[in-house]
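[09:14] KT: can someone run the structure on this one? pasting the chain below
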Amino acid sequence: MKISISIGAYDRVDVLGMVELIQQAEKLGVHYAWSAEAWGGDAVTSLAYLGALTDKIKLGTGIMQISARTPSMTAMTALSLDNLTNGRFILGLGVSGPQVVEGLHGVAYQAPLTRLKETVDIVRLAFRGEKLQYDGRCHKLPRPGGEGKALRLDHPAREIPIYLATLGPKSLEYTGAVADGWLGTSFSPDHAGAHLDFLRKGAEAAGRSLADLDLHASCNVAIGEDVEALIDARRPGVAFSMGAMGSATTNFYNDAFKRSGFTDDALAIQRLWLDGKRQEAAARVPDEMITQFGAIGTTEMVRQRLQTYRDAGINALTLRLDNKQGIAARVAHLEQVMDLARGL
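[09:31] RB: done, structure tokens below
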């Protein structure tokens, strides 16, 4: 079982203060560090900085929003980061959601899967050193009727893995068909089919199998004897995902929990959140929406949960540690998890 950690979150995070955490994680054998991008820090700058301060850990964008950049700029950024990190870079891409795409970037949230497919096509053209000539629904290169011409990027060809952060059924099928890896969220190993069935369907349609993908899943991890307190501390985060991570009509996180059998709970929490009743929304989160989507509890409980993820087919876990803890506490927590994960 490979282990990765996230750089940044949906609240204010001191990236400079996290340098020590990443460096210690590298010493402990953590395989990947993923940079977050929502409506705070971007996914790129932190990796460029950390690339100079680390030697072995793989650095990936988790995720780079495709609507915030043209595909050509995405490719140039990826090639630059791969060069700066001596080949340790992984390009993680995602479509984000309409509130961020339209509200923050002013781009229409239309045909997101088509936009993702075209972005991957163009980026791979660039990685192969080919001319960027493309006739798609969302992207046309060169721009028709203008003075542009098809160009090659001024970089040598490089093989950079592309991982996709997808949640919807059709997007998961596409990921299974073309991606090098999957960055999964809202995943429960107890309901693995809600995601993996679609990944498998896409892979098999393309003549592949799930073994051809590096399957990552985010995992809230908390170790302690007061299990009830650990669960209670994570109710607000689940309520936030159900109510705030999307609009009333488009919330991929909410939909993923519904596919896992929590339709009534997900809808009830979302309604409370959208009505401004955030405390009530958090209180409405059942224990199972926490315990079945993470590794929470005593040392032995967490060990068993990590094995459950492995048995479900996940070969890499992205740990969600408590950002409110100091660096020393998080490093100690990470060391505990690494000890539990060894041998899985």
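[09:33] KT: thanks! The chain has 15 helices and twelve strands.
[09:34] RB: yep, looked fine to me
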